[in-house]
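wait is this the right file?? whatever heres the structure
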């Protein structure tokens, strides 16, 4: 069986590359490798989410399934007085994200290897962002929604990108069931950006 980007320890041969890109007006560089999500460039869905994302200057942000770090690192730029925690089950992704935090001179982000939320239990965040691992299955995606709700501070939001064909309507229904509040912030080329929020 081939490795998936949500494999804890990918065995795929290394194939490192340096990407240079611009996200939310910031020029950023990312080292990528085989065995991680969207290794050839920042995926379109993550870009759509980042373009829509609203953060206060001092937000405490959690990036779930951070990959090599484009969303979390951009969030750290958008909330310069905040703190971003980036988590992923994939140890290769975690190592790359940590390398990319340093490469981009980010002082307000930390990266942890974590199976869903195991390493951040008991903490509180203002914003959770996720491009969820759809191929890991609905159970994993629903855990991200359900357990994430418990980690959000009152008034906090979860931002999710999901393709319509990969189950955006059922994801929206699940978020509605968990949070009671969900909106479709934007949609582009089949990608939906959903924001669910916790009552203040």
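ok assuming it is, sequence goes like this
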């Amino acid at each position: 069986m081939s490795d998936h980007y949500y494999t804890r320890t990918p065995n795929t041969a290394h194939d490192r590359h340096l990407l240079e890109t611009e996200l939310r007006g910031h020029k950023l560089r990312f080292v990528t490798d085989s065995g991680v999500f969207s290794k050839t460039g920042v995926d379109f869905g993550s870009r759509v989410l980042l373009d829509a994302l609203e953060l206060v200057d001092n937000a405490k942000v959690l990036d779930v399934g951070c990959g090599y770090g484009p969303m979390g690192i951009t969030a750290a730029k958008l909330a310069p007085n905040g703190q971003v925690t980036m988590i992923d089950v994939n140890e290769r992704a975690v190592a790359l994200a940590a390398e990319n935090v340093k490469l981009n001179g980010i002082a307000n982000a930390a990266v942890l290897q974590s199976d869903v939320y195991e390493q951040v239990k008991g903490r509180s965040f203002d914003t959770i962002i996720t491009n969820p691992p759809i191929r890991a299955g609905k159970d994993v995606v629903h855990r991200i929604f359900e357990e994430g709700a418990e980690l959000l501070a009152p008034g906090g939001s979860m931002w999710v990108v999901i393709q319509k064909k990969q189950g955006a309507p059922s994801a929206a229904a699940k978020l509605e069931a968990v949070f009671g509040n969900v909106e479709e912030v934007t949609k582009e080329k089949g990608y939906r950006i959903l924001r669910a929020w916790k009552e203040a």
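The mean pLDDT is 95. so i think its the right one actually
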